[in-house]
Specification:
It contains 8 helices and 6 strands; from the N terminus they run ααααααβαββαβββ. It has helices at 2-12, 14-27, 34-42, 46-57, 64-72, 80-86, 94-99, 133-151; strands spanning 91-93, 108-116, 119-127, 154-158, 172-175, 184-186. With 188 residues, it is α/β, with parallel strands linked by helices.
């Protein structure tokens, strides 16, 4: 059938489409129409394209079930801007902050803080690695304490997991995924 043919054609191009998508996201991180426009360009459903791009991006590291869960619950996707947009957070990204003169910047600086575990959160940092004691101490020393001093409490996400004993600072929360919307209270 036509849909099956289109699927295999798009699947064969998924690496190229993913590179284009990530490039467009990097240029316009707050544009939430990029996936929709890309799906129109390739004449494929947005959900189907999202599934193919996630499968390509996490090839070998995520199961089919993980991908399905990400499609159903986008906050599970290790993509800071996407996850933050989906839970309704308004933020400045690293590029925005650098343009205004900041040298050391978190991945996301919230315009309006949100509550996490009853504490106002002002920033979120993302690390695509495992959070062990050595890495975490280095990041606290070189980055995270700077963000905490400048902006207040924040969250660091180690997407490959972390040692639980790291999550003991009351102003730098450690996680391995973006917080579920039920864990955040949006402030106005």
């Amino acid at each position: 059938t036509q849909l099956k043919t289109t699927y295999y054609h798009i699947q064969a191009q998924s690496s190229t489409i993913l590179q284009q998508y990530e490039s467009e996201i990097a240029e316009n991180p707050n544009d939430d129409s990029i996936l929709l426009n890309k799906s129109i360009d390739v004449k494929f459903s947005p959900v189907g394209l999202a599934r193919l791009l996630l499968t390509e991006k996490y090839k070998g590291s995520k199961t089919k079930g993980d991908i399905s869960n990400m499609v159903k619950s986008p906050y599970l996707i290790p993509d800071m801007a996407l996850a933050a947009n989906k839970v309704g957070l308004v933020f400045h990204d690293e590029g925005d902050l650098r343009r205004t003169g900041y040298d050391k910047t978190p991945d996301l600086k919230l315009v309006v803080p949100c509550l996490y575990r009853g504490i106002p959160i002002h920033w979120i940092e993302s690390k695509a690695l495992f959070g062990d004691v050595s890495n975490h101490e280095k990041y606290v020393r070189e980055q995270l304490s700077c963000y905490q001093n400048r902006f207040g409490a924040g969250i660091v996400i180690y997407w490959m997991g972390y040692i639980e004993s790291l999550d003991r600072d009351e102003n730098i929360f450690v996680r391995d995924s973006f917080p579920d919307p039920s864990e955040l209270t949006l402030l106005k």
